[in-house]
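User: Can you model how magnesium ion sits in this protein?
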Amino acid sequence: MRLSELFTKTVRNAPADEVSKNAQLLIRAGFVYKEMAGVYAYLPLGLRVIDKIKQIVREEMNAINSQEIIMTSLQRKEIWEQTGRWDDELVDIWFKTQLKDETEIGLGWSHEEPIVEMLKQYVQSYKDLPVSVYQFQTKLRNELRAKSGIMRGREFVMKDMYSLHSSAEDLDSYYNQAIEAYKRVFNRLGIGDDTYVTFASGGAFTKFSHEFQTICDAGEDVIYLHRGRNIAINEEVLDDAMAEMGVTRDELEEVKTAEVGNIFNFGTDKTDTMGLKFTDSEGKQVSAYLGSYGIGITRVMGVVVEKLSDDKGIVWPDSIAPAKVFLVQLGENEAVKNHAEALYKLLSDKGIEVLYDDRDLRAGQKFADAELMGMPYRVTISDRLEADGKVEFSVRKTGVTEVLTQDELLAKLG
Ligand code: ATP
Ligand code: MG
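Assistant: Here's the modeled complex, given as C-alpha cells:
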C-alpha cells in the first residue's frame, strides 16, 4: 500500500473531547474516525488490524470445530420476552425501534436468545449434538459511559460463540477446549503474558464464570491476582473464589484490567426457558446444555494500543500490524526512488506487507509518521546509503537501528 494513495492522513491533534489514549492515537494515526462518543468508524489501516484480529480468532474457533455464521442486527421482541430480557429494567442498554406498522423490534446488543431460537430449528436429536457456532457482529449498546475510546463502544465488534451439548460433561469438556483456544488467541495477539483466566460471577447454573482479563491501566475492571499460583479473581466474587481456591486477601495483588473475553456455562437454564429440547438416546425429550463465549474484537485492539504504545505512537505486534514494514524513501535522487520502488515490489512479491511512504515530504515528517503508525519495522532508503546499495533497518519496539545489505534485510524479514 502506497501512502501517497491512502486517503487518510495523520493529524497532529485528536478531537478535544477524546480523553482515551487508544482513541487519541488511533485517530491521529488515521486508523479510526470518531463519529460520536463511543462510536468509531474503521479506516483502511484500522480495518486491516480488525481483519487480522478476526482471522486469528476465526482460525482458533474453527480449530475447535465451531462454524461461522452471521445473525441479524434487527431482532424480534418475542424472542427476548421468553427470558424477560426485553425489559429495560433488566437490560438497560437496549436500543429499540419500530417497523412501519409499529411492531417493536430491538437492535442487537447480544445474540444469545436469537441464536438459541435459531438453533431450535436444527437440533432435534442427540445425533445433532454437539454443535458450536460463532459470528463476528457489530453489537449496539446504549452504554451510559463511553470514555474508554474503542475499549467501550456504543457500537463495537464482538466475536460471540455458542455451543450446545447433550450432557453436562460434554459441555465441560468443550468449555475447557474453549479456554485453551482463547489462551492461544491472546498469545497470538501479543497480550498473552498479561491476560488471566479470571473467576467471575456465574450464571444461575455454575458458581463462577470465567473472564479473560488483561492488565491495563485504562481498563475498567479490578481483579485480584496470585501470580505464583496463576489465580485471578474479579473483585465482584472475591470472597467466594478465595474460599474456593484456598487463598487469602493478603496473598493477592490488586490490579486494573480490561475484560477482553468471557465464557459462561448456562447449563440447561436458558434452553429450559426457551424450550430447546432434543430426543436423547432413550427417546426422552430433554433440554440441551448451553455454553457462551465472547471476545471483544475492537476492545482488544484498544487494549493492544494502550499497552504497547510509547510516547511516539503505536507499536503493533507483528501478528496484527496493518503491514510488517514501513518503507521510507528519502530525497529526490532518481537512484533512491528506483531502489525504493524495486524493494517495494520485491517485498510485496515475497508476500511481505509493506506500507510504502512514497510521499513528497521531509524526513522528519516521514519518521514521525512511521513512529505514530507503529509498523514493526522501518526500512529507509536514502542518498547517504545508496552508493553502497544498503538500507537502514529499524525496529519500532526497541528503536534499534542498523545498516544492512539487501540480503541481510531479507533474512531479517524472512
Ligand atoms: P463489560 O463488563 O465490559 O461491560 P460485558 O460483561 O457486558 O462487558 P459481554 O456482553 O459478555 O460483556 O461481551 C463479551 C465481550 O465483549 C466482553 O468480554 C468485552 O471484551 C466486549 N465488550 C463488551 N461490551 C463492550 C463495549 N461496550 N465495547 C467494546 N467491547 C465490549
Ligand atoms: Mg463483564
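A couple of observations from the model: Residues 110, 141, 143, 152-153, 156, 158, 259-262, 294, 296, 298-299 surround adenosine-5'-triphosphate (ligand 1) (CB under 6 Å). Residues 3-308 form a domain with the BirA Bifunctional Protein; domain 2 fold (CATH 3.30.930.10).
User: Helpful, thanks.
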